[in-house]
Write a structure and sequence with these properties.
344 residues; alpha/beta; Quinone Oxidoreductase, Chain A, domain 1; Rossmann fold; six-stranded parallel beta sheet; 11 helices; 17 strands; binds zinc ion
């Protein structure tokens, strides 16, 4: 089969590799398409627990073409999506049922071969039925699952207000999840007019154009965004979905008393947030993170099937395996790129 493969960081190559064989309990899937995201950019530079050689791609939809020995519950020809994340089952967290915090996470497309390939073989427990779902919707099941986990972490108070920094695919999905999860008013802020236009089409209550955040303009942006909140005093929830600490530093000043800042974007490991402990104490604020997901796939698929979470307009770019460098280039530099999809 043809696949994008890294023998080492920074050097992806599309080439012929042996077809994977479905092992016992595994499902062999012909990949229809797979989403490209910020994680793939981190893997490109060798970050994020990447294990080489590696075929990346962790957001795939495809069709079952084979079953390993003893595999049940799936039929050849069935459309499926893959939850890339697996837990070890024997670390202290797993034994306590806290699966997403597993110390030995295995992820398809991160530290085991993924879906920027014509074929992939994965354990049946990580495969979910997606029959009847538009492949352009199903390909967003993984980011939607991560957004569902973000909502599960937040458990926002009914009637609260929320501001999401970042109108990318994950920010757009989490904004909708919060709206259906009880948040009464959801705003999304982003420098890209095109992305805000897409988000408006997904039913977000308020879109707020902002310039790129710098230390020089941060205070005036905070003032403007606070004034735009439903109460004029800030937001009960602020989500940092850009991966920028400069943006993250706007979070606490924009929270109402008792509010929560959710760190949802993937920042560099060296980045630092600046938070006044007195403010956390006096205003009873919470700063929390949301990383990946383990058990949110079925809920996310249900929300995609009902249309509670919508995806219209999110996919803007498609690349073949042989133009993987083009996908990386678009993800890094093309301001019109929203969701990029790789089509084997
Ligand atoms: Zn991803
Ligand atoms: Zn574990």
């Amino acid at each position: 089969m043809r696949a994008v493969i890294y023998d080492r960081a920074l050097e992806p190559e599309a080439r012929e590799v042996p077809d994977p064989e479905p092992g016992p309990g595994e499902v062999l899937i012909k990949v229809a398409q797979a989403g490209f995201c910020g994680t793939d950019l981190h893997l490109h530079t060798g970050g994020f627990d990447a294990r080489f050689p590696l075929i990346p791609g962790h957001e795939g939809v495809g069709t079952v073409v084979g079953l390993g020995a003893g595999t049940t519950g799936f039929d050849v020809g069935q459309q499926v999506v893959v939850n890339p994340n697996a837990y070890c089952g024997h670390c202290a967290y797993c034994r306590a049922g806290d699966l997403v915090r597993c110390e030995n996470l295995l992820a398809v497309g991160v530290n085991r071969d993924g879906m920027f390939a014509e074929l992939v073989s994965v354990p049946a427990g990580q495969v979910f039925d997606a029959d009847g779902l538009d492949p352009d919707v199903a390909v967003l099941a993984e980011p939607a699952s991560c957004a569902m986990h973000g909502l599960e972490r937040l458990r926002p108070r009914p009637g609260s207000s929320a501001l999401v920094f970042g109108a990318g695919p994950t920010g757009s999905l989490l904004a909708q999840m919060m709206a259906s999860g009880g948040v009464a008013h959801v705003s999304v802020a982003d420098p890209s007019a095109a992305k805000l236009e897409t988000v408006r089409g997904l039913g977000i209550d308020q879109t707020l154009p902002i310039e790129m955040i710098t230390e020089a303009n941060a205070a005036s942006v905070v003032e403007r965004l606070r004034a735009a909140s439903p109460t004029g005093t800030g937001y009960d929830v602020v989500v940092e979905a850009t991966g920028s600490a400069t943006v993250g530093n706007l979070g606490v000043p924009l929270l109402r008393n008792g509010g929560t800042l959710l760190v949802y974007g993937v920042a560099s490991e060296q980045a630092r947030l600046s938070v006044a402990p007195y403010e956390l104490f006096r205003r009873e604020l919470t700063v929390m993170g949301s990383f990946a997901e383990m058990t949110s796939f079925a809920a996310a698929l249900a929300a995609l099937r009902t249309g509670r979470v919508r995806t219209q307009g999110l996919i803007t770019h498609r690349f073949g395996l042989d133009d993987y460098a083009g996908a990386i280039e678009a993800a890094r530099h093309d301001r019109t790129a929203h969701k990029i999809v790789i089509v084997p």
